[in-house]
Amino acid sequence: MLPLVRRCRRLYFSYLSQPSGDRVVYRQLSKRRVSKILELGIGEGTRSLRMLELATHGQPPAAVSYTGVDLFESRSTTDGPGLSLKLAHQRFKATGARVRLAPGDPYSALSRIANELGAVDLMLISADQLGPSLAKAWFYVPRLLHAETQVFIELAPSGDGKRRLSRLTHFEIKDRAAQAAPRRMAA
Question: Which residues of the chain carry a pLDDT beneath 50?
Answer without folding.
Answer: none
